[in-house]
Fold this sequence. Notes:
- 2 copies of one chain form a homodimer.
- By secondary structure, chain A is an alpha+beta fold.
- Chain A is 36% helix and 22% strand.
- The first copy, chain A, contains 16 helices and 19 strands.
- In chain A, strands 12, 13, 14, 15, 16, 17, 18 and 19 form an 8-stranded antiparallel β-sheet that branches. A 5-stranded antiparallel β-sheet of chain A has the order 5-6-10-8-9.
- Chains A, B: GO terms for molecular function: catalytic activity; FAD binding.
- Chains A, B: Residues 42-223 form the FAD-binding PCMH-type domain.
Amino acid sequence: xxxxxxxxxxxxxxxxxxxxxxxxxxxxxxxxxxxxxxxxxxxxxxxxxxxxxxxxxxxxxxxxxxxxxxxxxxxxxxxxxxxxxxxxxxxxxxxxxxxxxxxxxxxxxxxxxxxxxxxxxxxxxxxxxxxxxxxxxxxxxxxxxxxxxxxxxxxxxxxxxxxxxxxxxxxxxxxxxxxxxxxxxxxxxxxxxxxxxxxxxxxxxxxxxxxxxxxxxxxxxxxxxxxxxxxxxxxxxxxxxxxxxxxxxxxxxxxxxxxxxxxxxxxxxxxxxxxxxxxxxxxxxxxxxxxxxxxxxxxxxxxxxxxxxxxxxxxxxxxxxxxxxxxxxxxxxxxxxxxxxxxxxxxxxxxxxxxxxxxxxxxxxxxxxxxxxxxxxxxxxxxxxxxxxxxxxxxxxxxxxxxxxxxxxxxxxxxxxxxxxxxxxxxxxxxxxxxxxxxxxxxxxxxxxxxxxxxxxxxxxxxxxxxxxxxxxxxxxxx
Amino acid sequence: xxxxxxxxxxxxxxxxxxxxxxxxxxxxxxxxxxxxxxxxxxxxxxxxxxxxxxxxxxxxxxxxxxxxxxxxxxxxxxxxxxxxxxxxxxxxxxxxxxxxxxxxxxxxxxxxxxxxxxxxxxxxxxxxxxxxxxxxxxxxxxxxxxxxxxxxxxxxxxxxxxxxxxxxxxxxxxxxxxxxxxxxxxxxxxxxxxxxxxxxxxxxxxxxxxxxxxxxxxxxxxxxxxxxxxxxxxxxxxxxxxxxxxxxxxxxxxxxxxxxxxxxxxxxxxxxxxxxxxxxxxxxxxxxxxxxxxxxxxxxxxxxxxxxxxxxxxxxxxxxxxxxxxxxxxxxxxxxxxxxxxxxxxxxxxxxxxxxxxxxxxxxxxxxxxxxxxxxxxxxxxxxxxxxxxxxxxxxxxxxxxxxxxxxxxxxxxxxxxxxxxxxxxxxxxxxxxxxxxxxxxxxxxxxxxxxxxxxxxxxxxxxxxxxxxxxxxxxxxx
Lengths: 479, 479
């Protein structure tokens, strides 16, 4: 047995003592489900998968790894899109998955809070809130699989950010295992607390590089009593911004979602996904999808929508509109939006961007980026859709018809560069809601100032001086 | 001339070269306005007051002080209540006041953002937003004097936190001068940006100990079209919590303020402040004051309030209620609440607490703390009022009648200890909205875990390794 193998064996033994034999998963077949990477851009490898069942076990795992010189990749639901939970070292890296830490520790109805462990599935958190006649508003496509720990680690966005904010805004307190194995109990349920530095927000969105979030106190809201959706055909994307302005005044907080879809992604959905129907007899270059909800019994949401949209139509901001008559019609409208990512796969290769720009510059961004890319590779089909209310566009590009997908995908890095250069030039972000992970540290290096990267490095060194936590994520290597 | 005096003179010369002669204020008479401390608990001293007019000048001041071995106390409007802007060293400490950095750099109406420099008066920011038909919702008593830089440095709270959050929630980006004189331009106007660590929130609420905030991008909201207030008499404080629950469902976002007042502080206001009138013929042990606002033309707020309060009265949650008929009646109701701090001064010595507990435990806290203190010093008059919707009570104590104020005030530290012990035991905070400053580092040492204090020290050392920025604030000295 060589010395490295001995160290490896000792680490596994120590981990088994810590979390029990059922808490350590070895062997490529058993590890495989944890080593999937959704976008296929990384090939994960790990020495073992460890499944601690409580916070003290997470702390013990961290200490054991520190002593053995192993590094740790924390993982929750493994639904991330930037490789942040993909370990890269079969010899000296442990995948620490939190799925066994899946208890809802407390629901405090009067305080409008819920305390959940990191391994709770988001849908289960939503259900626990609903059982207490409350709403936990975080919602997005992967909600049946993603875990709350991953939501916090990546500061997940989703459909309802316009009204309720990103995950960060939905968290009051966190419990974190630090790089030295100490546990920071920051599980405060308070809405006002200025008794020290804001440590919580440093861990949220740090993708497991500064500490391992093991539990959180989440904010709850009154449960909506009613819901109304509308679809709108627009001749110009600028009209979406002007309309959003009117809607925010007319509908206030009831406006929870405002999604844009170009004609191209709508056509993809109509062509490939069952149950998607053409929204209007006339096709439009742009569509807006709105959702309003309210906890107030005095609200009459469809009437509010009709009045606002009628007036906007008279002002030529809206070409055509329809308020869903009932739940099933609303579902049919949202089906179009939710089908876009799947539909795009039938159109060949797709190069993806998760960007944001100021609301006032969305139209300019889409025009400018589309023009440059189509000039660079004629036939490229921009497929923009996303959370226009937050300035967040998934600016995806489908390949020209009849091109070999591989030939198109070979442009990935070049197109990313073109798009991100334009985004950053316009005061935008190259990583709006999916995070940085192992995918975008080169973008961090290219677009962030020397001062900002240095600040991030100093924080990393202060909280994880030995670099044990998720190395290679977020912070670019020194040149 | 002794060497120390020489160094001092050289620093002043260098500062004058940096910010111009009009930017350096010396001599006790001219410095006096900057060296006031509102609560009279600290006697401020400084070598000079420096008034930089732009960010690069702030950076140059920091570098000059670093070279001269002087430390820096940043100050904005100097309206803080915990001595965070009170310099303590007439030889080697510079007071850096930001009042000359008072430009509104940009208002982006479509993006619902405003960029303001740190020395802008809060009321001027509110006015600039209003001129663009927008709302900047931060609001509290000192708004005509406090500066936005201080609001951010202390993460100020105020009247509208229930709906709009603390200052932290109202900020998208910041510009910060670091301890080494570098400038971090984090002035992003984006609502979604996960491209790195959340540096912004580390500086917000750090009271000038990690960096000097020189400008910020602030979130704006639709301007309210209507407003309605109500006063409610309650027999039990528990009823306030149950009523708040109903109001949050029935009124949704329109509920912007929910303030509690005990009978004692209301009597103080009635007795001492002109224009305060008894709200009802019958006195009640507790009063709730509500404000609803809405940007929606379809809302009918007085009706919504009447319906909800009538139903609550039928369920015996509300003893008596009245919705203000017009603006002047609403003003009269709010006058009672706003007069309490001034009225308390007429009742002799007052020992103050700025605490928060979970909403579900407010009643328990007030009962428990009042009982202990009255037992300790019979005749002590608890004077609780504040932002019950946020769990934040200003639990002030007025002296027993006919006691020498000095005798009562000699109990300050002892009473703080009693109250804070109870608060922390109940999962609450000893510093809810006024911050820590130079006043409460001993509380940080007593109530925060070793792990948390160590985290704060590590962050301080990472961002201000030489300790040049606001020494003595927030972080307790090592034993």
